[in-house]
Write a structure and sequence with these properties.
heterotetramer; B: mainly alpha; two-stranded antiparallel ribbon; 2 strands; globular; C: Helix Hairpins; elongated
């Protein structure tokens, strides 16, 4: 295994931990988006560009967007 | 001849697309007609497949990708009698469920509901027919996503929201564990086709530690779907709060399919390599017995009708698991008869429950519902007129042969207790003291007709024991399966002279359970028995049990982790 | 280095489960579930990896060049879709829960130990 | 269980689970040495057999196209589910207006954001078309392209007011778009049966390797999937927006 693969794997492990460790949903949505980007990089390094592209559009954009929209409702509604 | 194999899946899928396309501009009646037509078509097509598979398994390669040199390039359907029969059963239960859509209140989202029932049906049919491990996962997920969208239908009910969350999170964890198992097996065998995985494992080192852990994860994923203890929390919540039509499908066929999946994966991929069977048998039979025992007792611990029926469902799934868990053709045949008959009866219970609350239908509808519940209760206890009685006796016999005779009292006890719970519910409903919250409107004769039809079918399945014995012999003929899938040569499995049999002792136990159920359920003999069923004989235990089932998602996930670790450790230690 | 490649998926699984078990917020719980999903994608791709091999896209590399396993990539695409759809449904339910109760604490949703 | 008990019990169980998983994972081939027959055969035969340069696309839409059909219906079911769960129910109109009346301060969309959103939309749409139509040649395809297209549409929302979107589509139209997308996939599958072979058999001419018009049915499947995903995802996000729109100054058709 090259150093690059090892580094990205460690980053992904840490990223997943960070996603769970952050307890405020708004901040968590952003960390989750970053985690999505890390995953996409890992998939790219593992020679899976198709999966990397779909991880970027889903994990880093669409999913955080859905979370933010839910949050908007929840924050707005709680007043 | 086998060109029809994809259609029981493709037709409901196409139906779902058509329903969604049309529902905004056609009358509601047309939507129901379209959905009904797709269900009838699925039943017919699956029945034709059942006929085509009468002498040997039908193999169908999507995209025309037949295997090259024993290596599968595409996805296969592998249609045998048990799988096709399960696909027929799924269609019948969905058909019955759709007659209760008037319980959905004002009926908004009607088109979407029907489209989702069609994707659910397609997923169940695909799950029954596929011969590919990953394809099994895809249909597993399509079932789950369709079902928990429907579970969240009553968005104003907090209980329904909790049920849907619990359902989705528990099933997703199960699905991801299943997928990890698939990834492991792929890493070991480089294959996704079940027959190819089985052949590779048998010829390349057998069940090593990787294969054992993969087996454990796949079994856990499917047990979560089957909702056996300790993976049952989601079902208790969902059955309490989901719309009646969905609960009918869950009770009638959906959770049993998890156990079907275990049988399919075991006999195609894990039966030949030696070393795994004894530990797996112990795990499955023990899990089944614990489930039947615990849920059987708890079916009396709750007042809320649906909650009581939820534990009835769980307990009976445990009994089904015991038969399959024997890992013998005999046990499988027994469970198949039992599961078909029992599923139909459980569906009848919810049809009956819906009828007791049918609005503006007067006392007749309520009495009809009470009757369905009462007959259902007797059938659940094991009245030998129904497949439940015949199948239960056969499961006890198969377990005894497999060296697990100790489960007999558990099975009889669970049947008696659950029968009692249902009979008590029928009596309460008769007195008019049951509020279901699922008041239907309009024509109530259709659900009633479905209930009678299902009871009739459940009685008819009681006669199918010898047929099931032969079908199970083919289902469990692993080498013949692998040869047919991978080399295309139909291999005949001799099934002459196979019988399920109905031992007199089993018959006697059935009747004992029925008598016990009536006594316990009606409280006629001793008021004390009624109190046992109704009130708090062991206040601490009862309260503890209720607190345990308070719907916490975190608790359920914890139990899933405990159960997964326990099953994996048990299989691992048994393998050494 | 297999320890790292196969250890990270196990770690993500356990961490994601920990998040689900200890969560005090439904949104947090749903996002934790997506970490469990990530563990399956990572495992699929590490299982199918070949050192020094190219991506299985032969648009501008010779057909004879060794490439990593394409099947696990197809599986993990499906896996990603499944994960995202489940999250979407769960988020929709969470919105409804909040609308009804004003809270997102999963433990506040517990049933009172009724019958 | 109390949170504290639950955490302790979980940690014990998870430790045991991680241990037994690690034991089993040890049976995998060493990282980077995997040589599974299935994948390696496909890497060799897919290009000549199917005139597809992206073998992952060949697996997704040809060799294992039936899995992907199931996947599309999973997405389809989820879109329907979200629409069902977030459907507007009787009596909610008043609630929304009340929400609105409590007057939560809403920052108006700044001109910079508006312009940026509008500027970004055309490239996003173009890029999505590229990704969908080149699915069989390069990484990407109907799914990724569909998501990008849906996101592009959403940029219009970010740029302006929610009402702007209703000139573009209505919800029944989106439903029909998604339905046509999945039905198209099924129809392409039936093409094989009609030709006398198997469901999802790639029966169309395969064309010249590397051209847009190659790989038989695969580009058509990608188009169907792209349509389904784009329409479905816009519908899904619109349903979430309906829940949020009440906190914006302009109340659209949300009630």
């Amino acid at each position: 295994m090259s150093g690059l693969e090892a580094t990205v794997l460690v980053l992904v492990g840490m990223g997943g931990t960070a996603v769970v460790a952050v307890r405020d949903p708004l901040r968590q949505a952003m960390v989750a988006s970053l985690f999505g980007i890390l995953l996409a990089i890992l998939f790219f390094v593992l020679q899976a560009p198709d999966v990397a592209l779909s991880e970027i559009v889903v994990g880093a954009v669409a999913l955080p967007l859905m979370i933010l929209l839910s949050l908007a409702k929840i924050r707005g509604g709680s007043r | 001849m086998n060109n029809l194999a994809p259609l029981p899946v493709v037709v409901p899928l196409a139906g779902a697309a058509v329903v969604l396309f049309a529902h905004a501009f056609v009358p509601r009646g047309v939507v129901r007609l379209l959905a009904g037509a797709a269900v009838v078509a699925e039943i017919t097509l699956a029945a034709i497949l059942l006929y085509q598979a009468r002498s040997s398994t039908v193999v169908y390669w999507f995209g025309g990708w037949t295997p090259r040199a024993g290596i599968a390039l595409g996805v296969s359907f592998t249609v045998d009698q048990l799988g096709a029969a399960a696909a027929v059963l799924a269609g019948i239960v969905v058909g019955a469920a759709l007659t209760t859509t008037p319980t959905l209140g004002d009926g908004d989202g009607d088109g979407i509901v029907h489209a989702l029932f069609l994707t659910l049906l397609a997923a169940m049919a695909g799950f029954c027919l596929t011969g590919d491990l990953f394809n099994l996962f895809v249909f597993f997920e399509l079932m789950a996503v369709s079902a928990f969208a429907l579970a969240a239908y009553h968005t104003r009910s907090l209980s329904a929201m909790r049920g849907a969350l619990n359902f989705a999170i528990a099933n997703s964890i199960g699905a991801f564990l299943f997928l990890i198992g698939i990834a492991l097996l792929y890493g070991r065998t480089g294959a996704l086709n079940l027959a190819q995985i089985g052949r590779y494992l048998a010829t390349h080192g057998g069940l090593d530690r990787l294969a054992i852990v993969a087996l454990a994860l796949i079994v856990v994923g499917l047990l979560v779907k089957a909702a056996v203890v300790p993976f049952h929390f989601w079902l208790v919540d969902t059955a309490t709060s989901a719309p009646i039509p969905l609960v009918i499908v869950l009770a009638g066929v959906l959770d049993t399919l998890g156990i079907y999946g275990i049988a399919r994966v075991y006999w195609t991929a894990f039966a030949l390599p030696t070393g795994g069977a004894p530990a797996l048998r112990t795990v499955l039979v023990a899990t089944g017995a614990v489930t039947a025992g615990v849920a059987g007792v708890l079916s009396l611990a709750f007042q809320q009708p649906r909650r009581r029926l939820a534990f009835v469902m769980v307990a009976h799934t445990g009994i089904i698991l015991i038969g399959v868990g024997c890992l013998t053709a005999r046990g499988l045949a027994a469970s198949a008869v039992y599961a078909a008959g029992d599923g139909m009866v459980k569906a009848v219970l919810f049809l009956g429950l819906a009828l007791t609350g049918w609005q503006a239908a007067g006392a007749t509808a309520r009495r009809a519902g009470v009757l369905l519940l009462a007959v259902g209760g007797l059938a659940l206890a094991g009245l030998p007129l129904f497949a439940t009685g015949v199948g239960k006796a056969a499961i006890e016999a198969a377990a005894a042969r497999a060296g697990s005779g100790w489960v007999t009292p558990v099975i009889v006890g669970a049947a008696a207790l659950t029968g009692a719970a249902v009979i008590r519910l029928a009596l309460e409903a008769n007195a008019g003291s049951v509020a279901t919250g699922d008041e239907g409107r309009g024509r109530w004769t259709l659900p009633l007709a479905m209930g009678v039809l299902l009871l009739g079918l459940s009685a008819a399945v009681a006669l199918a024991g010898d047929w099931a014995a032969r079908a199970a012999a083919r289902f469990t003929a692993t080498r013949a399966y692998q040869q047919q899938v991978l080399s295309g040569h139909a291999a005949l499995v001799s099934t002459a002279g196979l019988h399920l049999g109905l031992p007199a002792s089993g018959l006697a136990l059935d009747l004992t359970a029925v008598v016990l159920a009536v006594v316990l359920g009606s409280g006629v003999v001793a008021p004390a028995a009624g109190r046992l069923a109704g009130t708090e004989p062991l206040p601490t235990v009862w309260r503890g049990a209720r607190r345990l089932h308070d719907g916490s998602i975190g608790d359920a996930a914890t139990w899933t982790t405990i159960g997964t670790a326990a099953i994996a450790l048990a299989l691992a230690s048994g393998a050494r | 280095m297999s320890v790292l490649a196969y250890g990270v998926p196990i770690w993500l699984l356990v961490v994601g489960l920990y998040g689900i078990v200890t969560s005090r917020n439904l949104l947090h719980q749903i996002i934790s579930l997506s970490v469990v999903q990530a563990s399956t994608s990572v495992l699929l791709l590490t299982v199918g990896f070949r050192a020094g091999a190219a991506a299985p896209v032969f648009a501008d590399i010779p057909a004879t060049r060794p490439a990593v396993d394409p099947v696990v990539q197809a599986l993990s695409l499906t896996d990603a879709v499944v994960g995202a759809t489940v999250s979407a449904l769960l988020l929709a339910v969470a919105v409804q829960v909040h609308k009804r109760t004003g809270t997102l604490d999963p433990d506040a949703l517990r049933r009172r130990p009724e019958r | 269980m109390t949170p504290r008990v639950r955490r302790v019990v979980f940690l014990v169980a998870a430790g045991a689970l991680a241990g037994v998983l690690a034991w089993g994972f040890g049976g995998l081939p060493r990282f980077g040495t995997f040589d599974g027959a299935y994948g390696q055969i496909l890497n060799h035969v897919a290009v000549p057999q199917r005139h597809i340069t992206d073998v992952v696309a060949a697996v997704n839409f040809d060799y294992r196209g039936f899995d992907t059909l199931g996947e599309e219906f999973i997405f389809f079911a989820a879109v329907l589910g979200v629409a069902l769960i977030l459907r507007t129910q009787r009596g909610e109109h008043a609630g929304h207006l009340a929400d609105h009346a409590t007057g939560r301060a809403v920052p108006p969309t700044s001109d910079a954001v508006r312009v940026l959103g509008l500027l970004l939309t055309p490239p996003a749409v173009l890029f999505s078309i590229y990704v969908v139509t080149h699915g069989h040649l390069t990484p990407g395809g109907g799914f990724q392209g569909g998501v990008i297209l849906a996101t592009g549409v959403l940029l219009i929302y970010l740029a302006g007011e929610f009402d702007d979107l209703h000139g573009l589509y209505t919800e029944p139209a989106l439903e029909r778009g998604a339905a046509v997308g999945v039905a198209g996939y099924v129809a392409i599958g039936l093409l094989g049966m009609a030709a006398g072979t198997a469901f999802l058999d790639n029966v169309l001419p395969l064309g010249r390797l590397g051209s847009i018009f190659s790989a038989g049915t695969v580009p058509l499947i990608n188009l169907s999937v792209g349509l389904e995903i784009a329409a479905g995802l816009v519908l899904l996000l619109t349903n979430f927006l309906h829940q949020t729109i009440v906190i914006r100054p302009v109340v659209g058709r949300s009630a």
